[in-house]
Amino acid sequence: FDQNSLLFYVNGKRVEDQNVDPRTTLATYLRENLKLTGTKIGCNEGGCGACTIMVSDLDPATDEIRHYSVNACLTPVCSVFGKAVITVEGIGSVAKKRLHPIQERLSVAHGSQCGYCTPGFVMAMYALLRNKPKPNMEDVDEAIQGNLCRCTGYRPILEAFYTFTENAENGTLKNSMNGNSCPMGEKCCKMNGNSKCNDTDRKEATKLSSFENVREYDETQELIFPAELKLN
Ligand code: FES
Ligand code: FES
Fold first, then answer.
1. What is the domain-level CATH number for residue 28?
2. Looking at the CA of 71, which ligand is closest?
3. Is 86 found in the same domain as 11?
4. Could you tell me if the CB of 12 is within 6 A of ligand 1?
5. Number of structural domains, the chain?
6. What is the Å distance from ligand 2's center to 50 Cα?
7. Is the beta carbon of 99 within 6 A of some atom in ligand 1?
8. 84 and 131: one domain?
9. pTM of the model
10. Strand 84-86 relative to strand 6-10: parallel, antiparallel, unpaired?
11. Is the shortest distance between the CB of 112 and ligand 2 below 6 Å?
12. Is the minimum distance from the CB of 114 to ligand 2 under 6 angstroms?
């Protein structure tokens, strides 16, 4: 690599820049220099997850490719030198290509209202699936714990994302609660003696959306790590 210029990849495209202000964050660089405004800036201090993107690099200890979600607002753009970044524009869209299955299921579940948090949730889930194509529900909870939503609430977002888990069966949720399926798991109000949660409520809570016609997730179709970055 030319050590005097910033080189990294964004959504499979090479970016080289010799005039980078080292104070620039990755979120600002993506939005202002590359015009990739799908990555949102909410708090700009690492608290909301709206700016979540995925970074891939080679683990220096093992030389294995690793993928992780990152708050782009906390990341100096120079720190992604030699790495590959994937933003929400790189995984799917209505205009240019199909929605990614994560986006499609979020839409089917009505998991987006103002949409400001949505790219961050999508990318946090995307990073999880790149590492573990069949996660469990706890993996999903952990993956999105840094993402806040102020309007939809988490119920439909979780319903959409749990369909990717090994606990999901035929598009509905299934967990270990005596054969019942409540996405709140152990925290289900029924488990805690709330008499207002009767069987009718529970049926509504488990079947708000149907995922029967959504596409399967196929991890072999994802962007590969750029060959150039493996060589240096
Ligand atoms: Fe809120 Fe980055 S903008 S975490
Ligand atoms: Fe508005 Fe999540 S959809 S903040």
1. 3.10.20.30
2. 1
3. yes
4. no
5. 2
6. 9
7. no
8. no
9. 0.85
10. parallel
11. yes
12. yes
Say how many Å lie between the CA of residue 60 and the centre of ligand 1. 27
Extract long-range pairs of 12-15: CB within 8 Å, 24+ residues apart.
12/84, 12/90, 12/223, 12/226, 14/226, 14/228
Q: Under a CB-based contact definition with an 8 Å cutoff, are residues 79 and 99 in contact?
A: no
State the residue range of the domain holding 60.
6-90
ipTM entry: 0.99
48 lines ligand 1 (CB under 6 A): yes
Question: How does pLDDT run across 94-151, given as a tens digit for each residue?
Answer: 887 799 999 999 999 999 999 999 999 999 999 999 999 999 999 999 999 999 999 9
Q: HSE-up of 117 (CA within 13 Å, CB side)?
A: 21
Alpha helices in 12-133 (DSSP H): 26-28, 101-108, 118-131
CATH number of the structural domain spanning residue 191: 1.10.150.120
For ligand 2, atom 2, which residue shows the shortest CA distance?
A: 149
Angle at 212 between CA 224 and CA 202, to 5 degrees: 115
Token code pair at residue 89: 């524009």
